[in-house]
Amino acid sequence: MSTDNRTVGDYQLVANLGEGGMAHVHLAISNRAGGFQKLLVLKSLRAELAEDQDFRAMFLSEARIAARLNHPNVIHTYEVEEHDGKIYIVMEYLDGQPLSGVLRRVGRHAVPLPIGLRVLAEALAGLHYAHELADYDGQAMNLVHRDVSPQNIFTT
What we know:
The protein is an alpha+beta fold.
């Protein structure tokens, strides 16, 4: 995790948490009135994709769908911000580790069966919620998470 002390709008970027094929992910501090501060995660479209209207549309679609999800086993998405032409998805910060990091550190076979089953059950509960989500008119949204992996299952 590298440090990063830039400011984006009302957010101070504290650290680079990682990057994927489409986006960069940063730990940030929200600076609001009266000294109110909160740790958050900012996900931004990679610079080389930011000018491509198809990628921008996909990124915004992801944000709109994520904002609809409200479940204990799904990261909360708070808002979308745009600053200097870059779009940021503002998300909940969780104090924990991706499952991939836990497995790498302790070894896959060292995780006690009850704990492994609990992690699996919680992940499946979040996926089930997303798959069953309906729009505001009650129509099924038919969501499918296409990147379920130990890197995308977060343990707290």
